[in-house]
């Protein structure tokens, strides 16, 4: 899987992409990250990437020339890769969407800034838009990093225990059951006895019940289709 990341701030990604699961996945050769600085494709000596919006209004808008230049460069490297814009107007990032994207050989992630990008770029050079939630960030970089993490951990060989993907939250449309580890008692709080029973069927039943109950309490919307 190759992630091409188009951004005005490539330094934002340098440490996160080298750390923990993302770094290990790269070291194993399972993923490749390419940071593309949009400023490199600016057409003036000042490397200008934004301008005032037509019609007036607050803030600045990302200019089409450098952004399209960066998008065309990325597409030349990987002609089949979808061009994804991180945007609060996009489709919500979900576990099912992460699984869908994990089937791709690569993708081009575009990080907007300021008040957004010129609409002509959105219409002519973007294939789909993805949002990580109903809120506004300073730019698309945090969202792109979230998407990369959500997708990378689903790739074969990335996680040490593949079974954890099948049992975690949203894997079956519900929240994950409570987890416990040693010690058996901590400051007066005990591990549920069923988890110490050694009865795998009872443990499985308890976990399923806990998963449903926790989902009812915290995210009842997930159970609407059940």
UniProtKB/TrEMBL annotation:
Annotated region described as Disordered, given as residue ranges: 206-226
Catalytic activity from the UniProt record:
guanosine(37) in tRNA + S-adenosyl-L-methionine = N(1)-methylguanosine(37) in tRNA + S-adenosyl-L-homocysteine + H(+)
One Pfam family cited in the UniProt record for this chain: tRNA_m1G_MT
Residues that bind S-adenosyl-L-methionine, according to the entry? 112, 132-137
In the record, the note on similarity to other proteins reads: Belongs to the RNA methyltransferase TrmD family.
Subunit record text: Homodimer.
Task: Give the protein's biological function.
Answer: Specifically methylates guanosine-37 in various tRNAs.
Q: What is this protein called?
A: tRNA (guanine-N(1)-)-methyltransferase
UniProt organism field: Persicimonas caeni
Quick one: which gene encodes this?
trmD
